[in-house]
Amino acid sequence: MVLKFYGFSTSTCTLRVAVVLKEKNVPFEFIPVDLLKGAHKAPEFVANQPFGQVPYIDDDGFILYESRAICRYIAAKYASQGTPLLPTDPTANAYFEQAASTETSNYDPFVSGLAWELKFSMWFGGKTDEARAKQLQSQLSAKLDVYDVILGKQKYLAGNAITLADLFHLPYGAIVLDIGIDEFSSRPNVARWWKDISTRASWEAVKGGL
């Protein structure tokens, strides 16, 4: 039975899962959830995703939500096909988890915050908090200075092989670039890394939406 993938076609968390599905060559049925009509808060949706958020998957009756958890599951279940993205060697896996934690703690809060302030808040009738946006960009800049040091020693964040940790950066990175915040190109190692991951066929296939 083909994996069912419930999400919103352009949401960052939906695209995070989509790029991994493509990297692993996993067939799936995409089932759109209309956030604008509140479909994610409907009882039948909340029964499977209690927070009323996208995405979640139904893999032959196995229900899983939270995009990074879904990505880990896909990479582990389909380890023998597509691009290896989840190391099994204990040391390599520890470096992967370190890199994944880095994305969660030292990248996501700043890029997601910028995306909210400079794009999404307006969708909901709000307005940009310019002071907060400026602070977030300054914080992101400082974090990417450290990324540049790390990526000066290795090709990817967890070593010299790409992992989920690298791909996790793509959706929000693409948004902040689209809204005119480029903290990547001025840092040579970050720029090289970003070009590498953002030109992969898997991301090219999904970046415009599902």
Describe, in plain words, how this protein is organized in 3D.
The chain is α+β, with helices and mostly antiparallel strands. It is built from 10 helices and 4 strands; from the N terminus they run βαβαββαααααααα. It has helices at residues 12-23, 43-46, 67-77, 90-106, 108-123, 130-151, 164-167, 170-178, 188-198, 201-206; strands at 3-7, 28-32, 56-59, 62-65. It has a 4-stranded mixed β-sheet with strand order 2-1-3-4, with helices on one face. Helix 1 (12-23) links the parallel strand 1 and strand 2 (28-32). Helix 5 (108-123) packs across helix 8. It is globular, with a radius of gyration of 17 Å. It starts with a strand and ends with a helix. The mean pLDDT is 97.
Looking at this protein, list some descriptive labels.
210 residues, alpha+beta, 4-stranded mixed sheet, 53% helix, globular
Give the uncertain stretches in residue-range form. none
The arrangement of helices and strands along the chain is EHEHEEHHHHHHHH
Percent helix range: 40-55%
The rough form would be described as globular
Radius of gyration: 17 Å
Straight-line distance between termini: 20 Å
Spell out the blueprint of helices and strands.
Blueprint lengths: L2 E5 L4 H12 L4 E5 L10 H4 L9 E4 L2 E4 L1 H11 L12 H17 L1 H16 L6 H22 L12 H4 L2 H9 L9 H11 L2 H6 L4
Parallel strand pairs: 1-2
Antiparallel strand pairs: 1-3, 3-4
